C-alpha cells in the first residue's frame, strides 16, 4: 500500500514563506506586541484551585511550569509543526534530547529501534551506547537497500529511524519505501530532517510519522542556539496494535488516563510534554526559542542561497587537482542524485564531504589552513564551516563505522554559508595549495 | 440557513463555519457525559463550562445525579430547558438514533447544531439533520476546536492552522 498522504492543508492555503513568518505568532493579545515576547518566567499564576486542578489533570490548555510548557517555546513549536505539516511539536534543549523524547513514548526496556548506519556520528554513539542503559537496543542496518530494514525488524521493534539527508555523507533515505516497510510492521518511521529542513523536504508528505530536528543547525541558522524538536504527523494510529501501551493504555501518573482516547491525534505530543518533558526534563530556554523563531523567519531565503552556494563550491572542488572526490548529491554523477531529485528537488543542502589527496595528514592541513571558513564542530550556520570528521566528531567510532558514515581519513566536511561564493572558493583554493605544499615537504 | 448547511464538506470545515457555531451557541446538551473525572467527556464538559457555556449532561446511567453541578437527564427530551446544540459523545453506531431524536424536538427545544465528537461520524444522519435545517459537525471535539480557534491549542505546541496578524480581544472571564 503506497502511503504518500499529503496531510490536510497545514494552514488555510497560505504559502511556506508566509507561514515561516506568521505561524504560531499571532500578536500577543494583552499588549499587542508584534514580535513574540520572550516569556522569561519559570511559572504561571492560577486563577484558583479549580483552575490549577484542571491544568494538572490536563483538562484545560494552559501553562503551569516552564519545564513542561512556555509561551515562547509553544509559539516555536506551532511554527515548526505548521511548516512540517504536522499535528503538533515538542521543542527541547537539543537535537540529541529530541531523539530521546521521540522514542520515549514508544519504547520499553528490551525494545528495539532499527536505525541507519549513516546517522550522524553523535547519534550512532547515542543509539548504540547510551540507549543501552535504558534497555533500548539499536539495530543498525544499511538503509540504502530498504529490504535490509525489513529484515532487521523483530517483534520487539518499535520504530525505524533515519536521516532524510545524512550528516556528513550527503546520503539520502528513500523515505517513501521506508514508510511502507514501517507501516507493514505497524511501527512509526522517524526521520531526522535536520540537514534538509522543511524548506527542502517534508518527510510527513512521504509517509513519515515523526520528524526530529536539531534546531541548532539551519532552523536557528545563525549558530546562536542549541535546540531540538519532535514533530508528530498525528497520522499514526497508536491503538492499531498492542505495541504502544504508554499511549494506548491507562497512564498511572495521570490516574489511569488513556492518552489516545482522551487526546486523539494530539496524544503523542501531549505525552511528550506531560510525561516526556516533565520527567526527562530537557526543556528549551525561552531565549533560545525566540532566537530560533527569528531564524526560521528567513529559512526559505537562507536555504536556497545555502544550496546555490554549495552547488557552486561542490562543482568547483570536483575539478580541483588536489581533490580526489566530492560527495554531494547535487552533482550529476552522485549515486543519490535520483533520490535528491525526488525528495529534495530545490537543492541538496549545504553540507558535503570531499576527499583530499594525501589522506589524514592532508585533511588536517586543509582545516588548519583556511582563513574564512571556521574550523569547528557544527553545521548549518550563515558562516561557512569546516571539519575533519575522522579526528573530531567521528573519533569515537570504529574504522568500520567511520567508513559507513562517510567519515574516512581523507574526508573533509564543509557546511557552506551565505558569504560571497567566490570568497569561499578562493579560501578553499589557498588552503588546498598550502596543504599540498606541506604534505609534499613532509614527504621530501 | 439550510442551503449553506447542505454544502458543508465534512472532511474539512472552514474555520469561519466552526467559529460561527462556537460563537453562536450558549447551551449544549452533552449525550454520553460521564460522571467519572478521568473520562474524555468530563474533560470536555469542564472545559466548555469554564469558557462560559452551559453544558447539560445526558446519560441514562447517571440520570438523577449531578455532573459538574448540572442535573443529568436520561434523554434529550427529558431536558426541561431549551438548548442550542447536541454534542454526541457516543460510538458512531449510536449517533443516528440520537440525531433523529434531536430532529424530532429541534423546533420545540431550539436545537440548531448537531456536533459529533472526535471519532464519531454518520453521514446519513448528518444529511437528515441538514435536511431538517440543522448545522452539523462530525469527528471533531468542541473543546479542541474552541482551543484551536482561540489560540489556546497553540499553548500546547499544536498546529492551529490559524494565520493572522489581528490582535485578539481579551475577555475578562
Ligand atoms: C543530523 C543531526 N542530528 C542530530 C544532531 C544532534 O543535535 P544537537 O547537537 O542539537 O544535540 C546533529 C548535530 O550535529 C545532527 O547533525
From TrEMBL, chain B:
Gene3D superfamilies: NAD(P)-binding Rossmann-like Domain
Transmembrane segments: none
Tree of life domain: Bacteria
Pfam families referenced in this protein's UniProt entry, alphabetically: CoA_binding_2
CoA-binding domain residues: 21-120
SMART domains per record: CoA_binding (SM00881)
PANTHER family named among the record's database cross-references: COA-BINDING DOMAIN-CONTAINING PROTEIN, CYTOPLASMIC PROTEIN-RELATED
Protein name, UniProt field: CoA-binding protein
Species of the source: Ferruginivarius sediminum
